[in-house]
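Milestone 3.1: sequence recovery, worked example.
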């Protein structure tokens, strides 16, 4: 070990996405659909009007205004980021010290532990039960361990389970710490269960949103953190000055302003196709669990074997081998058919 590298970094595990030449990618929960040709032309026009020789707008003003208009919140409550990942990092920097504890609910998005660990914070794990959080266990450990922050996704990645709004509030009102609720997949579920509208009411609630899933622009890396005005100001203060590049700001603003109907139509198609994929998997002997997301989940002791065999056939899915889980993103109808045919042969 290099003596200049801190031990906390040396013991961390690097996040490594699937690598390889895959003809079908069903591993990252992205939308399988590009924006329409008409919408791409608008994006192109907006992008080429940007002054690429200048730094981007440090405040992402037009982008944040477009986002807030769609979701009915105040720009003062909102910060834009280079994907939700950056915002998790910024939030960790704002609130955590090496003396603090962070509670997560595995299996969940690995970055919830990764960024707090770079600060040196201690991770407290309250495992999910069949994909669901145990609210009373979270409250118990958060209070006993004097936890500084709770992070979880809702609906959950990878279980796909949705936590009701009242349950999030139940935890929030019985603990005394920052609660970060990542709603990356809420568009595929019941948007009535979102707690974003409560951010102005509570001084400890932060909601993360991304345009990488239902909005279909994962390659542009655009995310948002919504909270109360004080926390919003703190996040904007700590983030990098020019964290969202000019092209991403321009394109995402067009998506939010002009592509709303199209995006809504596409994620309804994805929801329908996800259920069709689940039924098809059941039909060939791969029983999958119903989810509130754009992916399905299979529990099997053959998880690693199936993952490897699909990889050899040019199909990428996500394997959580330690939990015997396979997570499969809903693709286009053609991609889903290719997956089913490959699984039949396996």
């Amino acid at each position: 070990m290099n003596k200049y590298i801190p031990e906390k970094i040396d013991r961390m595990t690097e996040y490594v996405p699937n690598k390889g030449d895959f003809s079908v990618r069903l591993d990252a929960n992205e939308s399988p659909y590009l924006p329409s040709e008409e919408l791409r032309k608008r994006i192109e026009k907006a992008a080429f009007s940007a002054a690429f020789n200048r730094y981007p707008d440090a405040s992402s003003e037009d982008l944040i205004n477009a986002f807030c208009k769609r979701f009915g919140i105040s720009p003062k409550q909102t910060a834009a980021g280079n994907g939700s990942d950056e915002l998790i990092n910024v939030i960790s920097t704002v609130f955590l010290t090496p003396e603090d504890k962070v509670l997560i609910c595995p299996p969940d998005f690995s970055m919830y532990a990764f960024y707090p660990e770079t600060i040196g914070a201690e991770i407290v794990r309250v495992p999910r039960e069949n994909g669901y959080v145990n609210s009373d266990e979270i409250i118990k450990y958060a209070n006993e361990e004097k936890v500084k922050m709770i992070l979880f996704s809702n609906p959950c990645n990878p279980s796909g389970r949705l936590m009701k709004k009242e349950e999030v509030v139940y935890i929030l009102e019985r603990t005394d710490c920052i609660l970060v609720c990542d709603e990356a997949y809420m568009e595929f579920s019941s948007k009535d269960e979102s707690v974003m509208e409560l951010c102005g009411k509570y001084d400890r609630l932060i909601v993360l949103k991304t345009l990488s899933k239902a909005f279909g622009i994962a390659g542009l890396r655009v995310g948002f953190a919504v909270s109360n005005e004080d926390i919003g100001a703190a996040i904007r203060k700590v983030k990098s000055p020019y964290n969202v590049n000019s092209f991403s700001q321009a394109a995402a603003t067009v998506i939010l302003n002009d592509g709303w109907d199209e995006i809504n139509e596409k994620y309804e198609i994805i929801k329908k196709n996800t259920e069709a994929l689940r039924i098809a998997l059941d039909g060939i002997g791969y029983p999958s669990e119903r989810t509130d997301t754009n992916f399905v989940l299979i529990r099997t002791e053959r998880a690693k074997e199936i993952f490897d065999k699909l990889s050899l056939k040019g199909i990428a899915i996500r394997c959580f081998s330690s939990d015997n889980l396979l997570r499969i993103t809903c693709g286009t109808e053609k991609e889903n058919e290719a997956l089913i045919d490959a699984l039949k042969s396996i």
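DSSP finds twelve helices and 13 strands in the chain. The mean pLDDT is 92.
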